[in-house]
Amino acid sequence: MNDLRDLYQEVILDHNKRPRNFRILPQPTHQANGLNPLCGDRISVYLDIEDDVIRDISFQGAGCAISSASASLMTEALKGKPVAEIEHLFDAFHDVVTTECECPKGLGKLSVLAGVRDYPSRVKCATLAWHAVRAALEERKEAVATE
Ligand code: ZN
After folding, report:
1. What is the pLDDT of residue 114?
2. Could you tell me the distance, in angstroms and rounded to a whole number, from the CA of residue 128 to the centre of ligand 1?
3. Which residues of the chain are modeled with pLDDT < 50?
4. What is the whole-number distance in angstroms between the Cα of residue 87 and the centre of ligand 1?
5. Measured distance CA(8)–CA(88) in Å, rounded
6. Which end of the chain is more exposed for a tag (fewer CB within 10 A), N or C?
7. H-helix or E-strand containing 78?
8. Contacts for 84 with CB less than 8 Å, ≥ 6 apart
9. How far, in Å, is the centroid of ligand 1 from the Cα of 86?
10. What's the pLDDT tens digit per position in 54-88?
11. Strands (DSSP E) along 13-147, which ranges?
12. Distance (Å) from CA 51 to ligand 1 centroid
């Protein structure tokens, strides 16, 4: 379990224990569900988009510490951002959790999840909420799965 210590950094633990934006939006403009069958993580995301800007974003669900913390960090990162920036941020985040790249600037706290790159099965936990947001924007009705 010692190897996991680096993975579960303080920020991740904090966001798992006290997830930010953990609620259901009353009238979301976009919504989608994500499922990671490998780990059993389930996350629903809710977005309120107006004039191509994410006015509000929230999530609900149950999963491992990595999936919950990543969803929480993601909502903080995306709130107030133009929709056009989501794909760019997701790409940058995906690089951070899968490759030994230098962390791109502008990712802020999202880069605390860089530790998952040493645990390939955990990458799906870390990116689940992002896949759900992408599905919500594409208005896919069925749950998006990481498999
Ligand atoms: Zn997980």
Report:
1. 87
2. 9
3. 1-2, 4
4. 22
5. 25
6. N
7. helix 65-78
8. 52
9. 22
10. 999 999 999 999 999 999 999 999 999 999 999 99
11. 30-36, 41-50, 53-62, 144-145
12. 33
- The fold of the 2-145 domain, in CATH, is Sufe protein. Chain: A (3.90.1010)
**pTM, whole model, 2 decimals?**
0.90
CA 71 to centroid of ligand 1, rounded, Å: 11
Determine the pLDDT at residue 2: 47
Distance 4 CA to ligand 1 centre (A): 13
Tell me, what's the pLDDT at 107?
84
| Span from the CA of 123 to the centroid of ligand 1 (angstroms) | 8
Rounded CA gap, 86 and 9, in Å?
Answer: 25
Q: What is the four-CA torsion angle of 131, 137, 143, 145, rounded to 10 degrees?
A: -20
